[in-house]
Design goal:
The complex is a heterodimer of chains A (32) and B (593). Chain A is mainly α and 32 residues long. Helix content of chain A is 91%, strand content 0%. Chain B is mainly alpha-helical and 593 residues long. Chain B has a two-stranded antiparallel sheet. Classes of the chains: A mainly alpha (32), B mainly alpha (593).
């Protein structure tokens, strides 16, 4: 495993974190 | 030609006949009702819940449901990435294939987790049996079941009304189901039995299913290679193909065991195997329409969405078939006879298997791009520009004409919500779908869901055309080369997975940008769908009144199709004009690429 693996895995992790943010943001929007 | 058209009619008839029984069965699965397989599978299901610590009675609100989906799919991606990178250290790799390059592994892992199954690799020259079986086939089941689970949750959002009785634990205001239960039941009761049956049929037809290493056999007739050296032997790639092919056809996955997918004689050896594999492409997406109708208590609603899908499918299928039977006008001017006779299939046979002919190739190409399957039995890069346009446009419509298992229908339901909203604006009534009021939150989510895939396609194509890495994979010049890039991002940006075979896409740039396109197209459509479900499940159902737009009638079916067409055409007509449309016009003037 190399640095480039960490880069790609971080990229995908970032996407899933952003998706969690999407869920929380949408929930907040729904409650308004 | 007559026999080919008769096969297309037979295909559509068999598909139609199977919609109701399978749709009814799946509705029972998602409603938790008794099914004929209960005696066999209930104990297995209970055991799985016990092992996983899942309480199947526990309802989830949309937020928990969505987070469970993201967590599960994220871990699935990681497991597949590691299998692909480390396959040289893992067992069941008789050809001792090396671990994949990081960017290649990234794209494949995203591709199979997101149900896209875009293939930037040749299966038989890249992957060992463990990677194919545990890695790819495993994700074929899991990603398909994820799409079906999201659909089940969305339909419950449309069906359920408050107050929910008995009250849900943990302060949950509106349950849309339990992700783990929907996932488990989709696999156990639907995908596994169908895959087992189809795999056995395929094996009976000669599709290989073995752990033996590749076989070296003497050629019946010796030949020479490109350098003039004599060649007297051939290596036959083998492997556990039938089990993977069955689910990749049924689950709208599409990633073939062999590089050329079902054009390979070991993946698709006979007319019957071809028919069954084609049938499997549309079977579950079509039947899910009836499941939807059953779950909402009005099967007319299910037939309505199925008819709306076929308002696109049948005319575009006819266009594709006629374009391919029409052949290449340049060849006609050279005196080549392209008419179909008893001795030749006629038309444009470039890139097609002679044993399948034009009708069965064009039908597969149409079905595989309408559904988000993506497997092929002919090379789409070699279709006439009009034929290629049909395949491109099906993907660009957002994979809602049949689409992926589950994802196609929840995509179309989002379009239905937009359709009733726009119709409501036109007549000044509060829009409702199945008695649930459509308000600003639902529209915001629907807007995200229909804008993300086109953004991925257009931005990805534009960026690829501005980079050396993106341009380097183009095989042909002019508009056809543009179509190759557009096809690659249309396929990845709508989770289809088929390829214009001419484009060499296994580069760090295409793998990374295509990977991101697949992620956004999959999850940033599924999440808004779940959010809409979470919002609708809290709303009471309004009884129909004089101002209600009936969503099972011909007017709504036509209106829904118009909305899908308008969104698709507005988003993609300029790119289609730059690619297949101008290529078709130039072809008529004798210019080819």
């Amino acid at each position: 495993m190399a640095m480039i693996d960490l880069f790609y895995l971080s990229l995908v992790l970032l996407f899933f974190v952003a998706s969690v943010g999407f869920v929380l943001g949408a929930q907040r929007l729904m409650e308004e | 030609m007559g026999a080919g058209l008769a096969q297309i009619v037979l295909y559509l008839l068999v598909l139609l006949i199977l919609v109701k029984p399978l749709g009814t069965y799946m509705a029972r699965v998602y409603s938790g009702e008794h099914t004929p397989l209960d005696r066999l599978l209930r104990p297995v299901e209970r055991l799985l819940y016990r092992l996983a610590g899942v309480n199947p009675q526990q309802e989830m609100d949309w937020k928990i449901y969505a987070l469970a989906m993201l967590l599960f799919n994220g871990l699935g991606f990681l497991a597949l990435y590691l299998i692909l990178r480390l396959q040289s250290l893992l067992p069941f790799n008789p050809e001792r294939f090396a671990g994949l390059e990081p960017h290649t592994a990234l794209n494949i892992a995203i591709s199979f987790t997101s149900n896209t199954n875009w293939q930037n690799y040749g299966g038989e020259t890249t992957l060992g049996y463990l990677a194919q079986m545990l890695g790819l086939t495993g994700q074929n089941f899991l990603s398909a079941a994820t799409g079906m689970a999201v659909l089940a949750a969305m339909v419950r959002g449309l069906v359920r009304t408050p107050p929910i009785s008995p009250p849900l634990a943990g302060g949950i205001k509106g349950g849309v189901g339990n992700f783990w239960v929907d996932l488990t039941r989709s696999i156990l009761y639907i995908l596994l039995p169908l895959s087992l049956a189809l795999a056995l049929i395929l094996v009976s037809q000669g599709v290989v299913q073995t752990f033996r290493p590749y076989q070296t056999v003497p050629l019946l007739q010796a030949t020479t290679d490109a350098d003039g050296n004599p060649v007297s032997e051939q290596v036959l790639a083998l492997g556990p193909a039938a089990s993977q092919i069955a689910i990749k056809q049924l689950g709208a996955n599409g990633g073939g065991f062999f590089n050329v997918n079902s054009a390979h004689p070991f993946e698709n050896p006979t007319p019957l195997s071809n028919f069954m594999e084609m049938l499997a492409i549309l079977l579950i997406p079509a039947a899910l329409c009836y499941t939807f109708g059953q779950m909402v208590g009005d099967t007319r609603q299910g037939w309505a969405v199925l008819i709306a899908m076929n308002l696109f499918f049948i005319p575009l299928l006819a266009l594709d078939v006629s374009a391919e039977y029409g052949g290449n006008p340049i060849l006609t001017t050279l005196g080549v006879d392209q008419t179909a006779t008893d001795l030749q299939p006629g038309g444009n046979m470039e890139g097609k298997e002679i044993r399948f002919g034009i009708a069965n190739s064009a039908l597969w190409a149409t079905a595989t791009t309408a559904a988000s399957n993506g497997s092929v039995n002919s090379m789409h890069d070699s279709y006439t520009p009009l034929g290629g346009l049909v395949e491109l446009f099906f993907m660009q419509l957002g994979e809602v004409i049949y689409g992926g298992v589950g994802s196609g229908l929840y995509g179309l339901l989002i379009f239905a919500i937009i359709a009733v909203f726009v119709a409501g604006l036109m007549v000044g009534r509060t829009p409702e779908y199945l008695g649930k009021k459509i308000e600003s939150f639902e529209m915001k989510m629907a807007a995200i869901a229909i804008l993300v895939p086109p953004a991925m396609v257009l931005l990805g194509t534009a960026a690829a055309l501005m980079t050396n890495d993106g341009l380097s994979g183009i095989q042909d010049g002019g508009p056809h080369g543009f179509s190759e890039v557009l096809y690659a991002y249309s396929s990845q940006g709508n989770n289809n997975g088929s390829a214009f075979a001419g484009y060499g896409a296994n580069t760090p740039w295409v793998n990374t940008t295509g990977g991101l396109a697949m992620l956004f197209a999959r999850y940033w459509v599924a999440l808004p769908a779940l959010a809409i479900a979470g919002s609708l499940v809290r709303k009471k159902r309004a009884p129909p009144n004089a101002g209600t737009l009936p969503t099972h009638g011909l007017l709504f079916i036509g209106w829904l199709a118009a909305v899908v067409l308008i969104v698709g055409a507005l988003s993609f007509l300029p790119t289609l004009a730059l690619g297949p449309i101008v290529e078709q016009l130039l072809l008529r003037q004798g210019v080819t690429f």
